[in-house]
Specification:
Largest sheet: 5 strands, parallel
Radius of gyration: 26 Å
Bound molecules: magnesium ion
Shape: globular
CATH class of the domain at 40-208 and 237-244: Alpha Beta
Helix content: 40-55%
Number of strands: 7
Structural class: alpha/beta
CATH superfamily of the domain at 40-208 and 237-244: HAD superfamily/HAD-like
Number of helices: 11
Strand order of the largest sheet: 5-4-1-6-7
Low-confidence stretches: 1-12, 17-37
CATH architecture of the domain at 40-208 and 237-244: 3-Layer(aba) Sandwich
Amino acid sequence: MHHKCQPCSIRAQFVRFCSTVFLCGVVSIVSAKSSNPSSPNSLMMAVAWKQTAAEYKALYYQAYNIARMQVERALSTRTPGDKTLAVLMDMDDTILNTVNYWGYLINNNQAFFDDSIWDRWIPENKVVPTPGSVDFLAFCKDNDVEVFYVTSRNQGAKTFEYAMDHLKINGFPYADENHLTVLTDTSNKQKRQDEIGNDYEIVLFMGDNLNDFKRVYYVTDIDERTKLMEQDKDLFGRKFILLPNPTDGHWIRAVFGESEPPPTNTNREILRKAATRSSWEQ
Ligand SMILES: [Mg+2]
């Protein structure tokens, strides 16, 4: 028995070895696929829209056309002694297109915002102006309407320098220390907005996040946030001009409880619940 078993045992080991090699191959193929079509990245549709949709670009033109009409209206009703006019601008996804970062996330199988990648990406100067932004702000400058940039970013000691570079490289007016505010320790822009409001007549605010207009919207409850926005519904398109952003912002915070949720299974489930908040039940 034993001598017969010997070759059997060797054969069995060989078969086991082969199946292990085969299974490893299958597993690696499956895992390669799982980061691709079989488990689609939850950011994919939103980022594809940002990358390709003419509608996305048109929304920027629409916003900047409305902004220009509001500035023209403000200019036409000026009387001597009035405060200097100003517009308050957010930077990322308002005057700057950041889609190159989101493309990188997709290529690296990231399904959620990644702060460390963002901090590495910012100094690379891959931002480009959003459609209509440079022309609108040049129009403001030509008419002595001052432009203030207020952004929340934190890439350490060089944060301000990086943000200033983004303004200068992309040809934005008023790229100087008086007109750029970089908040590294908070997303609360209210204090700076109030300071500017004391010295200037603010014609309008532009941003891709309600927080770019007023801090009062900074709540985590989805319905409360919507209700607060609706109390100001008459201001949109007049004083508050909003740009689209389906990938990041405080709407994410309202869904997940934090603005930059980690890529956990719990958060994937929360995202699914958000997407099915209203659903046909049959
Ligand atoms: Mg922004």
